UniProtKB/TrEMBL annotation:
Organism whose genome encodes this protein: Sakesphorus luctuosus
Gene: Aspa_0
Any one GO MF annotation of this record: hydrolase activity, acting on carbon-nitrogen (but not peptide) bonds, in linear amides
Protein name listed in UniProt: ACY2 Aspartoacylase
Pfam families: AstE_AspA_hybrid
Source organism, top-level taxon: Eukaryota
Example of a GO cellular component annotation carried by this entry: cytosol
Length: 138
């Protein structure tokens, strides 16, 4: 499957559809070249590994008491360091990120995740190295 976004539920966006078409085309091109016996050299890629799902601050009744801070909104995949603002309470208090390492939040303030009690996901940036690849079947 291919998930391309973010975009609101029930909304069709031409730019997102174009990105999805390009991703699918690249995938099909790879499969064709692989099946033709093309050898792909070793490579290193940057990936983001999920560390933790972070909920909104809540009161004792389970109600959300803070929103995503404006400086974090729309900053998916950008570094979040200790002390950076994360939430803003309804009283105007800033709640900073408290962590011992830089993380890369994603799915920030996604409407589909409110019911899952998820304000964003913390990820860590990693590099993966792939060996050369070649189809062994002729």
């Amino acid at each position: 499957g291919v998930e391309v976004g973010p975009q609101p539920q029930g909304v069709a966006r031409a730019d997102i559809l174009d990105k999805m078409r390009k991703i699918v085309k690249h995938g099909l091109d790879f499969v064709q070249l692989f099946n033709e016996g093309k050898e792909f050299p070793p490579c290193t890629i940057e990936v983001f590994k999920i560390m933790e799902r972070v909920d909104y601050p809540r009161n004792k009744n389970g109600e959300i008491i803070a929103i995503i801070h404006p400086k974090l909104q729309d900053q998916d995949w950008q570094p979040l360091k200790n002390g950076d603002p994360v939430f803003l309470t309804l009283d105007g208090e800033v709640i900073p990120y408290q962590g011992n390492c830089t993380v890369y939040p994603t799915f920030i303030n996604e409407a589909a995740y409110y019911e899952k009690k998820q304000a964003f996901v913390k990820t860590e940036k990693m590099k993966l190295t792939a060996r050369h690849l070649r189809c062994s079947v002729s």
